[in-house]
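Quick start: what a row looks like.
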Amino acid sequence: MKQELYFDRHSGLILSALMEEGRLVELGIENEAHREIVGNIYKGRVSNVIESMNAAFVDCGLERNCFLPLSDGDTMARVAGVTPSPQTARRGVRVAPLRLKPGDEVIVQVVKNPRGNKGAKVSARLSFVGKNLIYMPGTDFLGISHKISEAELRDNLLFTADGMRAKGDGLILRTVAPYATASRLRAEVEYLRNIYLSVLEKNKTASVGAVLHREFDLPVRVMRDNFNDDIERIVVGERSLFEELSSLIRLRPDFDKRKIELYTGEYDMFSQYGIARQICELSESSVPLPNGGDLIIERTEAMTVVDVNTGRFVGDENLEDTVYATNIAAAREIARQVRLRDVGGIVVVDFIDMQDERHRKAVTQELTQCLSRDRVKCKVLPMNELCLVEFTRKRTTNGVASQLLQPCPHCRLNGYILANEVTVCLIRADILGRLAQGAATVIVEMNAEVTDFFLSRRVMEKDIKARAGKKIYLVPHRTYHEEKFTVTSYGAGQAFELPANAKELKYD
């Protein structure tokens, strides 16, 4: 299946988009001021141990204390003062387990972001993710991706991996591992082990709250996790990011360097390729189906609920066949939406009632098959008599919606509006479009707080420098809704009148 990757960086955001046959299937958004912390390793101090919850709370220098479960071996988390030396770690010698108590210093890794009023979830079992495998020091485990289904291939890979790991260490072979040579796998294990050893060295002199290891930035993670033969090209909309990714690609001899290109168009790149429109659709709860039906996706604190409707689709046969066709289309789109929105936790789907048991099984199988293409692990339960299907998707982030939306200040925080970062991206795209069409002056009227945000993030700083002679004015309004803005453009020599509070967009 034809795939393309798009990367851009502006307005304080780093964005990535994975397209399949022109449709957005994965979206990544990272705020440069508040970068992803999943995968980061911290030196923490135990603040409290709750025996009844079988958990501890650890101060890692973040806004809230982190939650450390003490089950599944984490009770035996290493105390920083007796962490194995690099020499001991190389020999694969494990340290005697110790029970945690308040005041103990521990090395922990974030496995889930903070969510709501909950702190981040951490683990004392460290893991280091590479392109082909995951290295887990001190965890005696050997695993392989469930997507590698051929029995003989699985056995051969596991045998090879077993000979590469030190005693007491663990390895998990990722989906792309069969395409790597044994020497490349061995080199990757050694590289990841050296990262771990550097963490141990830093821990000796680090203070509590220090970051001992930081996960890669969004573009590098996306390249690492999605790089395969199906990627036909990579388009980058910002020069420094293009140079960074080009350097990364030079380390990959199996990739044709001609496939990465720098976008130099006058329009906003995501708008030019139709990606911006698809991103904006993610803020809507209603999702149209190709046959005229629709989905209603609602998030709650405990789960995500999806309702399937026939909409305007009436079909050509009897009611049962119409309902079946709609449910099949819904199963395919649901798999795409949970991947695109990065929905995690429990998902309950209310399919339209079907009487035929064969149809029920077929819809469940279609949903399971489509979810199997997801890199994140999903587990689907059988459809019940009410045509409800429940499945789980591993939650590692707060979902794309947390980046696209923010609580609405006008409805007691019960509703949501577009985040300021998204609004300024839309404004920037509109301005670039006007300038590309020949405008010499552009006037933007928008919410006063969004104007302040626009200026504080130095939005369009590089765009202005590249378009000498063009004038852009911002007009703040206290009465404008946060999402509302109007853009007016004028050609060279065309008369216009500026409001008294207009601010010319220029940066020192």
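That is the whole record. Residues 73-86, 91-98 have pLDDT under 50 and may be disordered. The longest strand covers residues 41-50.
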